[in-house]
Write a structure and sequence with these properties.
The protein is mainly α. It has a single domain, classed as Nucleotidyltransferase, domain 5 (2-Layer Sandwich). It has 3 helices and 2 strands, in the order ββααα. Strands 1-2 form a two-stranded antiparallel sheet. Helix 2 packs parallel to helix 3. The longest helix has 18 residues. The two termini are 14 Å apart.
């Protein structure tokens, strides 16, 4: 999700259950990391459509590795700047 901290409103979101994420041609055997990358890519695409290019990545207390890192990498691949 991309949230406006001042208003508390969600601006952009994506989920691994969405068709747009599933359409990224990810095989079921590819694992959760590749799905997380695809979620990051979709979030970044939607953010760019709304004119958002610079964000603060809040890990929510989680370490920056695994799926958290994969979401960030996917978003960066699509041009989102942290």
């Amino acid at each position: 999700q991309i949230i406006d901290d001042q208003s508390g409103n969600t601006i952009v979101s994506a989920s691994s259950l969405e068709d747009k994420v599933k359409d990224k041609n990810i095989a079921d055997s590819s694992g959760k990391l590749n799905i997380s990358v695809a979620v990051g890519q979709v979030v970044a695409e939607r953010a760019k459509e709304k004119g958002i290019g610079l964000v603060v990545f809040d890990r929510g207390g989680y370490k920056f590795h695994g799926r958290v890192k994969a979401v960030a990498e996917g978003a960066r691949e699509e041009g989102l700047i942290f």
